Structure prediction request, 230 residues.
Amino acid sequence: QVQLVQSGAEVKKPGASVKVSCKASGYTFTSYYLHWVRQAPGQGLEWMGIINPSGGSTSYAQKFQGRVSMTRDTSTSTVYMELSSLRSEDTAVYFCARGRVRQLAHSSFDYWGQGTLVTVSS
Amino acid sequence: EIVMTQSPATLSVSPGERATLSCRASQSVSSNLAWYQQIPGQAPRLLIYGASTRATGIPARFSGSGSGTEFTLTISSLQSEDFAVYYCQQYNNWPPYTFGQGTKLEIK
Prediction:
């Protein structure tokens, strides 16, 4: 069965960076796009970016341009999201999610990781 | 950027009754619209894609309709497990993929 398993909670100081991992299993890793979505406490869902695990190409929301980097390791079927220059407003649960349609970016998200809480506090 | 607006923000409905949730896009998204359910403390779950197609394993009491800029999610005969927050999302024009702000469905 398809699973996305994320790394554990993190506590970071303002100005630091955080790197969250998302390990995929149960399907062909390179065939489906993966997304990162975050949710601040009590707030809605915010899309951050997309990565094509096949070639590693990425596209980021303008809001995060210059601060976010998404990478993948095909040998371990894992994608990573690194967010730098953290501020208190980055405190949120970060989710990875799989695009539903094989090799198509224009699709909804059918499987989600369990979420990783990142807390930014001095 | 396409802005998705959901209404109402909160909907109070009794178990067994019907709930109707609305989502409006600031410009046409064709039928590239999804609905998700989120229970507090959990990841979102895909309910509907393509505006009206139920995702795998989703009960028939969930239905979606609409195209262009106006969309509706209907839940007939509400069950206790249906009380949650619901989000619409467009995936027609990206980046960015955009979500509505959510509708909280609560027990009346």
About this structure: Chain A has a mean pLDDT of 97. The interface with chain B takes residues 35, 44-47, 49-50, 59-63, 95, 97, 100, 105-110, 112-115 of chain A (CB under 8 Å). Chain A has no helices and eleven strands.
